[in-house]
Amino acid sequence: MSEAAIVIDNLQKTYVGGKRALDGVTFDVPRGQIFGLLGPNGAGKSTLINILSGMVNKTGGSAKIWGFDITDHPRNAKASIGIVPQEILFDPFFTPFEALELQAGLYGVPKGQRRSMELLRAMRLEDKANAYARTLSGGMKRRLLVAKAMVHSPPVLVLDEPTAGVDIELRQQLWAYVRELNSHGVTIVLTTHYLEEAEQLCDRIAIINHGRLITNQPTRELVNMAQEKIVEVTVDRDLAEAPQSPVFEKVTVLRDRVLQITYRKDRANAGEVLAAVTGAGLGIVDVSTKEPDLEDVFLNLTRAGA
Q: What is the mean pLDDT of residues 16-34?
């Protein structure tokens, strides 16, 4: 099937009281990709995810999951998606194994087809299979939520801030499992405030702000939108003040002999910047550059859309 994993068309949500959380959002999530859904707090990300999960009713537009309209075919749509919520929700009196068995039963997975221990092994929770869930650490509870979302083997997995409050080692383990799932054909939708994660993991990123889609592009194209670059230049003498040039957007003396120069890629290149430094009578001892990243683009786009 060539249809996208998720198709969202003019999706709208207005809460009682007039608060408009989604204002005509339209985008597709291609099958087999890791897709980033980013935006500031209150942008509408959680509302969109809750609509896909069936927890919130839309007020307009449409959404399809794996070809199933969430209104016309809600059971099939829900069976096609697994949601890992931002909040840690679990029954403290069930063991992890019991929690997965119960979740699989709710999805109608026959006992012979359940993968509870397999999922616990994948999440490195096998040794906690029969411990009460309330005794698990915060990171273990989050891994249990990922396992619960996968009990019915959905083709689409949504991870809503999955690494919030998780240590670095566990975060790396979780992403390794996400990449493995993706390599087996599972489409991943990720929301995160860790922009470096989105940049490293996601094939494509959509950014929403104030309930509206402001961009939806391949990750590399999005990063390339950042026009400002920074170069640090160590010169051969102490600086009483910073040299000036039309090719500099901003120049700062960091230390006695170190200049930090900001320039725009669409107006100048590194060679012109260095030529301006030498043209001011300074010898160049060392040069280092800072490449633009997703955080730069994110801030520029969300500020522009504010």
A: 94
Residues 119-158 pLDDT 10s: 999 888 999 999 988 888 888 888 899 999 999 999 999 9
Query: How many distinct structural domains can be found in the chain?
Result: 2
Question: Strand ranges (DSSP E) for 3-109?
Answer: 6-14, 20-29, 34-38, 60-65, 68-69, 81-84
pLDDT in tens, 45-75: 999 999 999 999 999 999 999 999 999 999 9
d(CA 213, CA 197): 21
Cα angle for residues 136, 86, 89 (degrees, 5° grid): 45
Looking up residue 298, the CATH number of its domain turns out to be: 3.30.70.1560
- Both 271 and 167 in a single domain? no
CA distance 122 to 173: 10
CA angle 259, 265, 266 (to 5 degrees): 140
For the chain, list the strands marked E by DSSP.
6-14, 20-29, 34-38, 60-65, 68-69, 81-84, 156-160, 187-191, 204-209, 212-218, 228-235, 250-255, 258-264, 284-290
Q: For 180-191, what is the mean pLDDT? A: 94
Structure tokens at 268: 């100048």
Asked if 219 and 253 sit in the same domain, the reply is no
Among 188, 203, 223, residue at a domain's last position: 223
Claim to verify: residue 183 and residue 258 sit in the same structural domain: no
pLDDT digits 0-9 by tens, 99-111? 999 999 999 999 9
Per-residue exposure over 56-94, b if at least 16 CB sit within 10 Å of its own CB, e if not:
bebeebebbbbebebeebeeebbbbbbbbbbeeeeeeeb
Residue 1 lies in a domain: no
Q: Which of the given ranges, 23-37, 167-181, 289-303, has the highest pLDDT on average?
A: 23-37
Same domain, 236 and 154: no
